[in-house]
């Protein structure tokens, strides 16, 4: 299921504004990559380019390629809806559909993809996705109750269950814990560690301890000044980035000497 991502010469624009310049990197399957860097350096923009969510914004465009196991997601004729099925995304604020039950929330992505499934299959999928998201035991007796009745951390795990129910190959997470309390954050971090057995995971985080705790690889993005494009300065083993980075800019950022 899990696939390698090869990013080649990726330039990401909002209209004429070049927001992220010339990123080339390889993200291994069954790993967690954390993207860190100062505000506005293009972390979220880069993340959204990995599943073609970027181009939803009017005037936004991308040059270069993003390959999943060698297949260019930006190739001619590739359907962005299919790309987003293969490369799922979890957002900063847990966003379960408020009027839907827990069960319906888990199945929402599958139904959006126009997949018809039998009742028994749907039940199995709800159970396996909620188990995969470490939420089953907490909600198995109230699957027909609204998803909005869960705690913030439970809601975020519900959103993760919804994402994995469509059986993606990659899971992108944009600051998935920033709206959560420390206990829920730990639950989601534990979950990430389990999910990496099956998926390639890329997260954006402002929390450097979190990057150090959960990720195998870390990418440091930086920006030279307002209006300048963000660049991937360094991408390496997380222990190397945090203990012995190759670039001075990375070291300055890690040690809090930035800006
Ligand atoms: N919808 C948009 N339209 C135009 N410019 C945008 C849009 N979204 C982001 N940008 C610009 O692109 C650049 C990168 O923004 P992005 O949100 O990717 O940075 P970030 O590193 O994720 O920041 P933060 O850590 O604050 O979330 C910034 O200059 C930002 O102002």
From TrEMBL:
Signal sequence interval, chain numbering: none
UniProt keywords, alphabetically: ATP-binding, Nucleotide-binding, Translocase, Transport
InterPro entries: AAA+_ATPase, ABC_transporter-like_ATP-bd, ABC_transporter-like_CS, P-loop_NTPase, PstB-like
SMART domains, per database record: AAA
GO biological process: phosphate ion transmembrane transport
Record-linked PROSITE patterns: ABC_TRANSPORTER_1 (PS00211), ABC_TRANSPORTER_2 (PS50893)
Pfam families: ABC_tran
GO MF: ATP binding; ATP hydrolysis activity; phosphate transmembrane transporter activity
GO cellular component: membrane
Domain ABC transporter: 5-248
Name of protein: Phosphate ABC transporter ATP-binding protein (PhoT family)
